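Researcher: Let's try something more involved. This one mixes different molecule types, so please make sure each is placed in the same coordinate frame as the others.
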Amino acid sequence: MLKIRQPTTQSSPRASRRGFLTGAAAAAGAIVIGFRLDLGKARAAGADLAAVKAQPNAFVRIGADDTVTVIVKHLDMGQGNTTGLATILADELDADWATVRTEFAPADAALYNNLLMGPIQGTGGSTAVANSWMQLRKAGAAAREMLVAAAAFAWKVPVAEITVENGTVRHAGSNREARFGELAASAASLPVPQEPRLKDPGQWRLIGQRVPRLDSKMKTDGSAVYALDTRRPGQVTAVVAHPPRFGATVTGFDDAAARKVAGVIDVVAVPSGVAVIARDTWAAMKGREALKVTWDESAAETRSSDAILAAYRETAKRPGIVASERGDPAAGIKGAAQVLEAEFSFPYLAHAAMEPLNATIERAPDGTYDIYAGLQFQTIEQATAAAILGVTPDKVRLHTQWAGGSFGRRATPSADYIAEAAHILKAWDAKAPVHLVWTREDDMTGGYYRPTVYHKIRAGLDAKGAVTGWQHVMVGKSIMIGSPFEAMLVKNGVDGTTVEGASDTPYALPAYRFEVHNAREGVPVLWWRSVGHTHTAHAMEVMIDELAHAAKVDPVAYRLSLLANAPRLAGVLKLAAEKAGWGATQESEKGRALGVAVHESFGSYVAMVADVTAGAGSIKVNRIVAAVDVGIAVNPDIVRAQVEGAVGFALSSVLRNRVTLKDGVVQERNFDAYEPTRMSEMPEVAVHIVPSQAAPTGIGEPGVPVLAPAISNAVFAATGQRLRALPLDLAGLKGV
Amino acid sequence: MVKLTVNGTTHEVEADPDMPLLWVLRDRLDKTGTKYGCGIAQCGACTVHLDGQPARACQTRIGDVGDAQITTIEGVSGRVAEAVQGAWRKLDVVQCGYCQSGQIMSAIGLLAGNPKPTDADIDGAMDGNICRCGTYQRIRAAIHEAARSLA
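Model: All components are placed in one shared frame. Result:
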């Protein structure tokens, strides 16, 4: 197969040029990484994204057989970004879609960093398309110009007379044409154009169209290889006995019975527990059952989740760190005609991706290493594993596999399960490739949850219903404090990933104060699909709804009156309301009503209208009408799918999901106690996309935040009962 | 030694009869299209066919399989299977795709016995298959689409 240039693909021979991991830091295991998250408004400016260089060699390979392989620097955990990213490049290249393939990039923070995360290769914050947009357009356009130049040289005709269509380069005047594969080798030797000419939007043939997903076939015939399907020669499976409480450590173990289990090969202690190594998963699981471990729980978290939340309530009575403030809300509330006060509580949530966490790691004969996993934070995973294994990061090759979901869980600042796999391999002296497998129970009880959070809001209205003051206090554990990103991302004690969506509310609230308390419990927390917006949107959108009702103004009209300076939010709100028949005379059906919510996250704008039937102890979501503004919708069908999926994903967290701790022990261990949404509960979802020529933003997450408040507001409209806590208190619902 | 017939091929597996079929398929016979999701028959990711009937491989002891023909996603074939897989591709049902082997095996089981399922029939046959990506709307549409193409 001829190539435009041999790129670094499955393995990266180059040394790390970043030097972010110093020897001393590596020895201490303390990784300090420059990191930024240009989410939301910062990204919309996008100036540096457009300044990115054209790097066709890094992102596309054209084979003599005409296949166009697009190198994908992101993890695809279901969002469809492989298809979306390939679409962007293939369109500028004028490739034949039928010949387009994708391949996950190796770890290389210089070539494959997320342009919205600084020097980090990673996937998150709904950034895959947003950060890659200009990079892949330029790569495709540059490769196209190289193919054209190669044809012009071979045919001795002017470049300007050559056209490209559907993978074929043509010169009409001399009636000559060539497929990409015929030109690839000669094109590869040409210089890379630095500023290739990009198409005008009117010339796009794939972008904005429903291009079929590239992964549909392999995911419907069993051939897609997920991390759990990794099969390396001679590999063994490891299952780890983890402590029953967060923060406990191993003091000793008795492995006599475990070693007698057929198929068990060895038992080794690692910092996170005791690993049973066996010839297959079943034997490893049986071996672990037979293992006796004693734990030191002196530093463990032993509180119950109820006690943690109760402590939050007390904390919220004290002044917190001011995250944002304008006007004088206290004075505004003092002089108000009406004062409303509400509290909102949120449980820990597990990501519960269908594919449990797992990773395969092996040592090559030359002392380098290979890791196969659903890698989501490659730069951190590589650095963390390298530090444990005592090598430089360039000695650890990463092989990103298809991921069976993630919802944020595979991107941990501590690279927790990758680190565990590296520790096992090291403790076992790398005798064979080791596949670390977390069972569902390990995955559910392993921490890194969406934090439990408490919001308390006081707001005043004047006689006309205008907001005179808004005081907002939030308590929760910061995701970033204590992580390698703390120095970069926590400003004056405020972690943007915790307060986003509330402290920066787009509503025109002239007297507003947002205070945050950073809780410090021992339960590890993490981003969960839409991060801080999972709770801030609910608190804001339910409270705004309460104010609208108190002001006796229609909830859509009330919001619009506060969104004069947020035209894209107003746009999706109006579109969703119109498509849902908001305000039209409804057939009155007992207990059935509409509720609305609108929110921006990650630079994308989403409104939802929920059609809900609520009765005593029950809520049935009949229909969701959503409107989204993601700028240019690269693949409108995938945009719709992500919003449909966001509803299915988040619905169970609205209705029932919570991770609870009893004396520090997680109670929900599998899908029987933490039950995701099922088919019979799935509402009909209609998704409307606002036409736009703005640069594309993401849609992996932004469908999630508005679902809970839209449903809660509909329940109020149907029953007059405000359910503020999540999950919604079905038992307390009296019905009509 | 336990004798198992998987996708028409007979294998002799040296394993405890208590070993779940799921782990034999995945770790001994390299049939990794059948997925592990929960291990307690709550999610359906491990759904295979035993003599054409959907079964959860995580709760099936290999010692209990006997002479039953085991069919996995890699080996499923025939008119109904093609209609289901074709509908899944036509509507781009998949997202992460991890549960879809099980979804498809359950859907084939449904359509094999009920060529024109109602929404309630679909709820009944598919409620045991969890899709954490929430692709249910498209799964439902794809089952109806497959039924239409088979009519």
